[in-house]
Design a protein that fits this description.
7-stranded mixed beta sheet; 214 residues; binds glutamine; Rossmann fold; 3-stranded mixed beta sheet; lyase; PdxT/SNO; alpha/beta; globular
């Protein structure tokens, strides 16, 4: 971790209730907002660069990654967000948020932008029509007491990870067995699935702990 990132984590840890932004351009913003509140942190909707400046960390929700990409440009958030990620701001992306955090995206629109938050290649809508939405139980590294119920909705898959990226979960069985669906690089987490819709807050708790520097 560089010194800027370390200082941010220390600041958040000191206050005890970090301000966690939820990128509120499109998608399931409310579910993440509620999850963060339940975890004892302060959720903040982020639509403007000034709002981004004022948060300790950011959640990028599920939705439609190409629409969010377009809105990031319209709201002049794309470069400020890339800069905060470069400076080590903790972030968590679910589904479309995972796509946005990638360094390379397959099967997207040629004009779609992404954020280079995690050194990974992500394929959009990777499960195909037959199973484009499904649920399964996953083993998730660090959440060892019980499997995580994972809800996939036209979800992406991680096709490649760089050397600094830790794989947190893979698909346990079936045609996609072994494929990567949760990753972490430093302070940045991403899941192909939607922990915000199941009522199991452990992935959000993990993220809030990471923001608090625990
Ligand atoms: N298929 C969507 C996309 O490409 C992601 C779906 C989701 O976030 N549930 O952006």
């Amino acid at each position: 971790m560089d010194s800027v990132a370390a200082a941010q984590v220390r600041d958040a840890a000191r206050t005890g209730t970090p301000r966690i932004g939820v990128l509120a351009l499109q998608g399931d913003v409310r579910e993440h907002f509620a999850a963060i509140e339940h975890c004892g942190a302060t959720p903040v909707n982020v639509r403007r660069a000034a709002e981004l400046d004022a948060v300790d960390a950011l959640i990028l929700p599920g939705g439609e990654s190409t629409a969010i990409s377009k809105l990031l440009e319209v709201f002049e958030l794309l470069e400020p967000l890339r800069a905060r990620l470069r400076d080590g701001m903790p972030a968590f992306g679910s589904c479309a948020g995972m796509i946005l955090l990638a360094s390379e995206v397959l099967d997207t629109r040629p004009d779609a932008k992404h954020l280079y938050g995690i050194d990974m290649t992500v394929r959009r809508n990777a499960f195909g029509r037959q199973v484009d939405s499904f649920e399964t139980d996953l083993d998730f590294a660090g959440l060892d007491d019980a499997p995580v119920r994972a809800v996939f909705i036209r979800a992406p898959l991680v096709e490649r990870v760089g050397p600094g990226v830790e794989v947190l979960a893979t698909i346990p069985s079936g045609p996609f067995a072994g494929r990567i669906v949760a990753v972490r690089q430093g302070n940045v987490l991403a899941t192909s699935f939607h922990p915000e819709v199941t009522g199991d807050l452990r992935v959000h708790e993990l993220f809030v702990d990471l923001v608090r520097g625990r």
